[in-house]
Amino acid sequence: MNRLLATGLAISAVALIAPRAANAASLIINDTSETGIVFSVGQFDRGSGFVLDGTTLLAPSLGTASATVSEGTAATGPITHTFTGQFLTGGPLIPPNSGTIAFTEAGGGISDILTFSYAGGGAGGVATLTGSFVSDLDPGGSLAAPIAVSDVEAVPEPASLALLGAGLLGFGFLRYSRKTR
C-alpha cells in the first residue's frame, strides 16, 4: 500500500512539472520581409479581436491571421502602425504590463520601436493589449532612441516548485518513519 501511495505521489509531482501546450494570445511582428512588415496574431478571442491600423485583422476567435503592411518609403519616412487586441485571461496579468523596445540595425542606429501595454485580466477576465510599431525603411537606423526606465521587480517562485519540495519532504518523512519502526 505504501509503494502504491509513493508511486501515486511521484506521478503527481511529474504531472505538475510536465510541459503542456499553452493556450494564449500571440502577436509576432516580422520586419525581415522584403515586401513589408508581417503582423501574425492568434487567439484574440474577446471583444474586438485584433485590430491593426483601424482594420480588423482577426475577429474574436481562437484562430490565427496575418497581414503584411508597409514599412514606409524614402519619401514617407518612418511609418507607425497601431494595434489593439482583446483576449481571455486565466489569472491576473504579471508585470511589467507595459514597455518600449528599440531595435537596432546591423550597421548601427535604431530602425524599429515597439511600444505596448496590457490592461484588465484576472481569472476569467478580459485583457486588452494596445501598442504601436514604428519602422523606418531598411537599411536605415534613423529613429531617435526612447528614454529607457527599468522597472525590474523580484521574480516569485513558481508554485509547482514549492509543491515538488513538499512532495520530496513527504518522501523523506515516509522513509524516516519506516526506519524508526
The major sheet is characterized as: 6 strands, antiparallel
Query: How many domains?
Result: 1
Q: Tell me the distance between the termini.
A: 16 Å
Structural class: alpha+beta
How many beta strands in the DSSP annotation? 9
What overall form do the CA principal axes indicate?
elongated
The count of helical stretches stands at 2
Mean pLDDT: 77
Q: Name the strands of the widest sheet in spatial order.
A: 4-3-6-9-8-7
Secondary-structure element sequence? Answer: HEEEEEEEEEH
- Radius of gyration over all CA atoms, rounded: 24 Å
What does this entry look like structurally?
The chain is of the alpha+beta class. It has 2 helices and 9 strands. It has a 6-stranded antiparallel beta sheet with strand order 4-3-6-9-8-7, with no helix packed on it. A 3-stranded antiparallel beta sheet has the order 1-2-5, with no helix packed on it. A hairpin with a 5-residue loop joins strand 7 and strand 8. The chain starts with a helix and ends with a helix.
Q: TL;DR of this structure?
A:
This protein is of the alpha+beta class and 181 residues long. It is built from 2 helices and 9 strands.
